Amino acid sequence: MRSFFATLASALALLAGCAAPASAGPKVPARPPISHVIEIMLENHTFDDLFAHFPGARGVPVGTTLPSPTPGGAPVAPLLAGPNQGEVQAGLNNSRVAELAMMDRRGARYAMDGYTRYPGEGLSAITSFGPSVAPDLWSLARSYELADANFQSVIGPSLPNTLAALSGTNHGWTTNAEPPASDVWHSIFDELSAKHLASAFYSGVPAWVYAGTVWQKVLAPRQGVEPLSAFFSALAGGQLPAFSFVRPGVGYSEEAPEDVGEGDAWLGQVLNAIGESPAWSSTAVFVTYDEGGGFWDHVSPPPSSGYGTRTPMVIVSPYARRGVFGEMTTNLSVLSYLDTLFHLAPLSALQSRQNNLSRAFDYQQRPLAPPRLPVVPARTVAFFGKNPLSDPPAEVPGRPFHILVVEQSPALVPVAASTALSLSLTAPAGIAVPASFPRRLVLRQGRGELSAVLFHPGYYRLRASAKGVLGYLTLAVGVGPNTP
Predict the structure, then answer these.
(1) What mean pLDDT is predicted for residues 10-19?
(2) Most CB contacts within 10 A, which of 54, 192, 260, 318?
């Protein structure tokens, strides 16, 4: 258990709005037991959106309400997603302009009360998903460590936050458009390369998607984007680099409207593979989310910091201190942890001020056992639109829809198998599932097409399963910002 004084110090640091400097915390031993760091970055969820009611954490206070999304309406309470819902509509706005308006700065703090009133947000922005939707994420948080004061480092969408998480700065860039060609993106990959330490960016999206983009500057010279299959091979073969940055593919990132359960099942596959690998005993894993995605969180970031909403960070390692880590952090803190571990120089002045997560670890404790997660299918079922780089479109009531269904390995590579999937659909309360909706779908060589029609607006959650195979899809049928 952390001492009273350590807990008091971290609370005062949070109230002061000052991240602990990178030198804070216990020193890493001369020969630390950690030689591999893995960051698994998912997308677009706030802390309250996924951990609103986590025991011991700063979740949503009882009795919290927000302004009605309709003029003159009564205040509304945050919603907990029902069994018919694993995500919300895709209309959430996470631009810098929108986030600043929704955070609603009032004097010395943000009121965090504009999410229900901003166009396109409404009840969708205050819907949260708990352990029934994200069982593996919650299991990791319970068994290891959950940081509950982690803020997105840039008020803006995914690209600037991801670039900052790897480069220590966003160079003032706050949109998802390509940054200016003149920007120099000196990154953690460059720092490790200079120290002759191996690193890799593993992605479930094909490497050609990154061609001609800023990623060619972020990666070290002669370093490319590697497929997830290379990550799993490195794990199994004992060839894991010093730093692995891992991102999923389409359908698994958890960004709305992608189902949280789909990404969670993949996360379980990844952590299971890490736990079974030779690297487990010397590895620190950080499960992060690039930014809040337009979802609400009740905790106000310090206005002077420039930080955005709280995002989850789960720390998994044999040496993670179990429980809730309450010190203020950002995803840049992972960089500071790498600096401390491998004796690197900070990438920026902002990063030099980050908490280095040293107090999240106890290298003298009895090592924790590898993860034993509740949902780890051998393969997942992916759902796409016209091709495997597109999400299924929003469905229109009464209009037939067609979804590409693909069976995939943990590396998100199609599996050429013939599989009979059982389909179950959970409809909104009071709505019956049409008798015409298919209960079975046979995949030929790992692929098939789901065709159906749903007549009533609302969220419907599809579960596709077979022995060792599992997939989830939230069907958004004629929904809007205020569809519960």
Answers:
(1) 39
(2) 260
